[in-house]
Design a protein that fits this description.
With 400 residues, this protein is of the alpha/beta class. The protein has 14 helices and 17 strands. It folds into 2 domains: 143 residues, Aspartate Aminotransferase, domain 1 (Alpha-Beta Complex), CATH 3.90.1150; 236 residues, Type I PLP-dependent aspartate aminotransferase-like (Major domain) (Aspartate Aminotransferase, domain 2).
């Protein structure tokens, strides 16, 4: 059995900087490599595997769907898509659902909806009221051309410019910065409710309230990216529910499929009525029966097993243990996050720490060069947190 990938095999997949370990299977909240070594998973496929691996009843439903129908296209309805849409509507309080294949595609659809809304608001079809979109510095929304255009990190954008135009950037949690970017052409304000790649920065309540009031006053759409922070990760089904600030458009993906590639963007009825109509947007695989079967079952399992209640119970314990590390190590300056989406800010690069953790059987991920990111499966226990901290503490000691 081959634990590490060869150089020739690396060359086939060279567009990513990957760790060389080849994971073979998962069970519960653990991963196993090709030699059978066990690793505690505290990154869950970048916040995708919310229920860990082989959660009771989830795999069986997918296998049954494989035997029924894998694909039919959007010329026809399929039952899993109808059920999944109804359950997403109930969980979010939104009104319309469009299924995509990924989070980046969900952002693309949200951007298109916003610009179409700008053309039709006021009931004047064809009169371009303005298509400017305000996004946030240090944000990350994906790597397709539209999603990249609203990603507030020049490092990701520069090699692919010129990108989609009429994008302006403001600072997260700085309302005056946002207000300074608003013009008569602004059609939408977009941000992650909790910035992930940018360093685990939750939106502040006052900021959310101010931006929402501005949007309502000027008929600007509020688009919230809940791709990483949604689906129970912060202790609410969607992070904006902490604030009581409902978006006009919401993008979600990652954990809604529990490992099956699927995303969605959702809209309020008012937004839907004045934006995308038949033929304005489409996708061959979006709403795929297998993917939507996964979404439907994930939502069932969340409700049946009170996953959000469990997150609310375990998250304070994780925060307490991470705060102890902040006190113990001088080079860790802060902890921040919501629920089971946490980050430790370090004054040293974290790449070496992550590699040492991996050698010792713990999988973590970074958020930028100096943030340790913790996005474990939502089903972790106090014992798993304790195991994680023991390994991480040993890895951190190398920096002393």
């Amino acid at each position: 059995m081959q634990k590490y990938i060869t150089q020739a095999e690396q060359d086939l997949l060279h567009t990513y900087n990957r760790y060389r370990i080849v994971f073979d299977r998962g069970e519960g909240v653990y991963l196993y490599d090709k030699e059978g070594k066990r690793y505690l998973d505290f990154f869950s496929g970048i916040a995708v595997n919310a229920l860990g691996y082989h959660y009771k009843d989830f795999d069986a439903v997918l296998k049954a769907q494989v035997d029924k129908l894998l694909h039919i296209s959007n010329y026809f309805y399929n039952e899993p898509a109808v059920l999944a849409a109804a359950k997403l509507k109930k969980a979010s309080g939104m009104d319309r659902v469009f299924f995509t294949n990924s989070g980046a595609e969900a952002i693309e659809g949200a951007l298109k909806a916003a610009r179409k809304y700008a053309r039709t608001k006021g009931g004047q079809e064809g009169g371009l009221a303005g298509g400017e979109i305000i996004a946030m510095n240090h944000s990350f929304h994906g790597r397709t051309m539209g999603a990249l255009s609203v990603t507030g990190n020049p490092h990701y954008r520069e090699a692919f410019e010129p990108l989609v135009g009429d994008i302006r950037f403001a600072d997260m949690n700085d309302f005056e910065s946002v207000l300074g970017q608003v013009t008569e052409k602004t059609c939408a304000i977009l941000f992650e409710t909790v910035q992930g790649e940018g360093g685990i920065y939750p939106a502040r309540k006052e900021f959310m309230e101010q931006v929402k009031a501005l949007c309502e006053e000027r008929d600007i759409l509020l688009i919230l990216d809940e791709i990483q922070c949604g689906m129970g990760r912060t202790g609410k089904m969607f992070a904006w529910q902490h604030y009581g600030i409902k978006p006009d458009i919401m993008a979600c993906a990652k954990a809604i499929g529990g490992g099956v590639p699927v995303g969605a963007f959702l809209m309020t009825e008012k937004t839907a009525e004045k934006s995308l109509g038949a033929g304005d947007h489409g996708t061959t695989y979006g709403g795929n029966p297998l993917a939507c079967c996964a979404v439907s079952k994930m939502l069932d399992l969340f409700e049946e097993n009170d996953i959000i209640g469990h997150v609310q119970e375990i998250a304070p314990w994780l925060e307490e243990q991470l705060d102890a590390l902040v006190s113990e190590f001088d080079f860790i300056s802060a902890r921040r996050g919501l629920g089971l989406m946490q980050g430790l800010e370090c004054s040293v690069p974290v790449g070496g720490i992550i590699s040492r953790c991996l050698e010792m059987g713990l999988v973590l991920i970074n958020a930028g060069s100096n943030i340790l990111r913790f996005v474990p499966p939502l089903v972790i226990t106090r014992e798993h947190v304790g195991e994680m901290v023991r390994i991480l503490r040993e890895a951190l000691k190398y920096e002393l």
